Amino acid sequence: MANISPELLEILRCPHCVSGPTRQPGADPGRLTLVKDSWLVQADCGRKYPIKDGIPIMLIEEGDKWINTKVEDLPVPPPQN
Amino acid sequence: MSVSFDWESDTVNASSNQLPLSINMSTPEELAKSIFSQRAAFYTTSAAHKDPQVLARLVALANPRADWQVLDIATGTGHTAFAVAPYVAAVIATDLTPAMLAEAEKLKTELGASNVVFRIADAHDLPFDAATFDLVTSRRAPHHFSDIARSLGEMKRVLKPGGRLVIDDRSAPEDDFGADVINELDWYHDQSHVREYRPSEWRQMLAQAGFQIEAVEPYTQNRTLTSLTRDVDAERVKKIHALLESLTESQRELFGYNVINGEPHVNHWYVLLSALA
């Protein structure tokens, strides 16, 4: 269960794209799309954040792990480690 | 005033829940994750972490409103999030450590706190849009942050203009010697501590991050020495004892270093802060 209501998805962003020196240009960078009910995908940078036990893992290093994995190849459920 | 008791009788915990202090990790965040994974269950019930008076004061400073969206950073097992939740629309609570949030989820179910949700996130790279929250809280955590200026900048970014930041954190006396000693003692207690800032340092850091300070409320608690030595390996426990024993009479007074009912006690410094973005 994703535990992500549309309202909560609306305010979540890719941390790489919104924070610090890596912030991307534009008024609202880093928007995420819920995929397979268990992944949050940032289309521009390619980072993908798993939702494990209902809790999104919104760490840049976690997103980095999946940057080269195609959306269709993302495992469901996401691996525990 | 004199303190005399047998240090050797102070039990040093050498059981299986001793922390792996030889782990070779570099960042405070990695260390914190490792240490707090093992302390998660303890923090659920820790008196120091769910101190009702401090939580009540934090809520009073926050002065929450029913329509507010709240972010609680480094929530641990969620005590602050649950304290604020009854007064606001929603609380998003973040932590670096999955084991902490697993405990927090259990508490959420027990408390029926349906307006609290959890995310794994780093205080230095918050995964939220700008100007999202009416209130940001963080308790007993900023002294673990490796780059406090950056995390305060992130708190400012995600707060709505005029939104409120309320922090409760470990702190230090203004006195140079006292500040150095409490930081050294706490580092022996937990190597993921980065620095416990004096109230005057907090004022500077908040101003530099662009906050308008509303309240700075330092307080101390005289707690049993086990608050520093619990789960600490024997070598570091020795260093804690040696450092305290080296204090002069007046320094002992500053540190509230006394035996009460047969148990050594020592002061801990804290500060409650409120500021507007």
Topology readout:
The complex is a heterodimer of chains A (81) and B (277).
Chain A: H1 6-11, H2 15-18, E1 33-35, E2 39-41, E3 48-52, E4 55-56, H3 60-65
Antiparallel strand pairs in A: 1-2, 2-3, 3-4
Chain B: H1 28-45, H2 52-62, E1 69-73, H3 79-84, E2 90-95, H4 98-111, E3 116-120, E4 133-139, H5 148-158, E5 159-171, H6 176-189, H7 199-208, E6 212-224, H8 226-229, H9 234-245, H10 249-254, E7 258-260, E8 263-276
Parallel strand pairs in B: 1-2, 1-4, 2-3, 4-5
Antiparallel strand pairs in B: 5-8, 6-8, 7-8
Helix pairs in contact in B: 1-4, 6-9
Question: How would you summarize this macromolecular structure in one to three sentences?
Answer:
The complex is a heterodimer of chains A (81) and B (277). Chain A has three helices and four strands; from the N terminus they run ααββββα. A four-stranded antiparallel sheet of chain A has the order 1-2-3-4.
Which features characterize this protein?
heterodimer, A: 81 residues, alpha+beta, four-stranded antiparallel beta sheet, 3 helices, 4 strands, globular, B: 277 residues, alpha/beta, Rossmann fold, eight-stranded mixed beta sheet, 24% strand, disordered N terminus
Could you characterize the architecture of this molecule?
The complex is a heterodimer of chains A (81) and B (277). With 81 residues, chain A is α+β, with helices and mostly antiparallel strands. Chain A has three helices and four strands, in the order ααββββα. Chain A has a four-stranded antiparallel β-sheet. In chain A, a hairpin with a 6-residue loop joins strand 2 (39-41) and strand 3. Chain A starts with 5 loop residues before the first helix and ends in a 16-residue tail after the last helix. The relative contact order of chain A is 0.20. The mean pLDDT of chain A is 93. Chain B has a domain at 24-174 and 192-222 and 270-276: Rossmann fold. In chain B, strand 2, helix 4 and strand 3 form a beta-alpha-beta unit. Chain B is an alpha/beta fold. In chain B, strands 1, 2, 3, 4, 5, 6, 7 and 8 form an eight-stranded mixed β-sheet that branches. In chain B, helix 6 packs antiparallel against helix 9. Chain B contains ten helices and eight strands. Chains A and B meet through helix 2 and strand 4 of A and helix 4, strand 3 and helix 5 of B.
